[in-house]
Amino acid sequence: MDRAFVRAILCCATAVFILGNCAFAQWDVYAYSQGSGSVPIPDVDKNPANAPPPPLVDNSCWMAAASNLLAGAGWGLSTQTPQQNADAIYGHMTSHFNIINGGFTYRAINWWLYNYGYNPDDTTGYYNPGNMYSDVTYVERTLTAGDYDYLLGELASTPNNQYVAVSFILPAPAECGHVMTLVGGNYSTSAGSQTSVWHDSDQDVGGTDDDTYTNVWGGGGPTATWWLDYGNTGPGGDDWLADAYHMLCPGLTKPQDAMENYDWAYYRDQNASGDWFLNSREAGLKAADFDDPYWWDSNTLVVDNELIQDQRKNVYLLIDYIDQDNNSDPGITLISSEDELTEIAPTLIEYSDDYGQILLTWELDHQPAWEKIIFPASKYHDLSLDVKDFNIATICVPEPSTMLMLALAVIGFNLVFRRRV
After folding, report:
1. Which of 113, 14, 110, 98 is nearest to 60 (CA)?
2. 169 and 305 share a domain?
3. How many domains does the chain have?
4. Measured between alpha carbons, how far is 148 from 186 in angstroms, rounded to an integer?
């Protein structure tokens, strides 16, 4: 069976890392798991009362970890605690994805961001465009002890904490996964002294107790494969291999007024059968006035506009890549109805700190009936290779001459008002 297929349909084991002050000497990184810091880390637990009937099992571990990451990073209602927010986000995800389906933590995160966190049409109060934690990096490989130390270092980065999810798999013949939330750990170069602290979505139901495990990696020192002796059901226990990590970092945001005007997201979603498919979400004040953008071909996305006199157009394209190496111009251009033969380069290109996101801005000097965004490869249409998802916001802005006239009118009004008083 293909390993990627197994990972997609089975429950990914996941861990969350967050930097905190060292509560005890044995932890180089300790993440508020016992309230030692200002905010405890959320610990979402599965509810046995809602378990599906046998032989089905609750595979919602990837959603529990995604909820921990989001709430730990500050997403949710300002009136609720991180734990309350995490539980609420987990409820959104399980209602949508179904607890019997396996999946990917990074896809769950972006589904929630697009449908709640970055959805200006949402009426539940989750719209929070100012939160910078939106850059999700996914690295798929057999992790080593060096990767573990690297992730601990990312947790300790300042001024912003990093949030990391780790996927584990139990190799053949079992080929299954499990979810846990890592909240602390220590650096080491020998297997015997390595310890980690976890929140387990299958354990500690109803509380935030910690589970401490040793032997995070197998023998051979820091270059050995990272594994976790989690099950311990027989001699030597079960070796769960870490085969991927998802890292939630500070990212980029589009202008809030543009998002509130019109915002279109393109991402992978999951149906009731557990199959992944390409989906989109349209939001904003102008969302009801236009049809969704549509693909002209596998490289060209068409966006319709509203023609408003004395207005020009700004277009914002935010792309979330899987890896962290996108620190160069991706070569995306735009053509408009004003001149279908001229490709327009972005006015501005911005990169997130970890190079996992790119924000392209076009400040057009006209108001086209439509624009076509020209991608250099079909991976943007297919959301394949290193492209995870993207979203577009558009807004009309007054012409510079109109702004000048308005400014002069305001000045004149003020002068008349001062004379009268």
Report:
1. 98
2. no
3. 2
4. 9
Q: What is the CA radius of gyration of the chain?
A: 24
Domain that holds residue 68: 3-250
**Total-model pTM:** 0.85
Specify the CATH number for the domain of residue 310.
2.60.120
Q: Cα(162)–Cα(182) distance, rounded to whole angstroms?
A: 13
Contacts of 104 (CB under 8 A, 6+ apart): 7, 8, 12, 62, 138, 246
The beta strand positions in 54-185, using DSSP E, are 133-140, 163-170, 176-178, 181-185
Q: At which residue do the structure tokens 């349909």 appear?
A: 9
Whether the Cβ atoms of residue 114 and residue 391 lie closer than 8 Å to each other: yes
273 and 362 fall within a common domain: yes
Residue 385 dihedral angles phi and psi, to the nearest 5°: 55, -120
| Same domain for 154 and 19 | yes
Q: Are 118 and 213 in a shared domain?
A: yes
Burial label, 338 (beta-carbon count in 10 A; 0-12, 13-18, 19+):
middle
Q: Name the token pair of 101.
A: 């389906």
Shared-domain flag, residues 180 and 314: no
Mean pLDDT by 10 residues, the chain (421 residues): 42 40 49 50 86 92 93 91 94 96 94 94 86 91 84 75 83 72 72 70 59 62 68 55 88 94 96 96 88 94 86 96 87 93 96 93 93 97 96 90 46 50 46
Q: What is the rounded distance in angstroms from the CA atom of residue 86 to the CA atom of residue 135?
A: 18
What confidence score (pLDDT) does residue 414 get?
52
Q: Which helix (H) or strand (E) holds 111?
A: helix 105-112
- Shared domain check, 100 and 27: yes
The torsion angles phi and psi of 19, rounded to 5 degrees, stand at: -70, 140
Asked if 146 and 86 sit in the same domain, the reply is yes
As to burial, measured by CB atoms within 10 angstroms (0-12 exposed, 13-18 middle, 19+ buried), residue 406 is: exposed
Neighbouring residues of 127: CB distance < 8 A, sequence distance ≥ 6: 116, 117, 118, 119, 120
- H or E element at residue 152: helix 145-155
Residues 297 and 337 placed together within one structural domain of the fold? yes
Instruction: Please tell me the distance from the alpha carbon of residue 307 to that of residue 408, in angstroms, as a whole number.
Output: 26
Domain limit, last residue, from 250, 274, 298 = 250
